[in-house]
Amino acid sequence: xxxxxxxxxxxxxxxxxxxxxxxxxxxxxxxxxxxxxxxxxxxxxxxxxxxxxxxxxxxxxxxxxxxxxxxxxxxxxxxxxxxxxxxxxxxxxxxx
Length: 96
Description:
By secondary structure, this protein is of the alpha+beta class. Helix content is 25%, strand content 20%.
């Protein structure tokens, strides 16, 4: 598997201040459009933030060049997690 940062369509960092997320994305060469940011609409949902981000990703189109998403999450206390997802196009053009 040859995955680079150029293969990543979305990087979610959990629910942090927008300025913090923009700074991290800029340091690795991604734009704010390359994240799912739901804090203003839904507030902080704990571990559920990651599930909401994945649900919203599934409603977007991924291209073959950038078909990966990295989802980072935080829960109560000092629990943190991260996973990488691979999205592939379906017949109707949406991601699976």
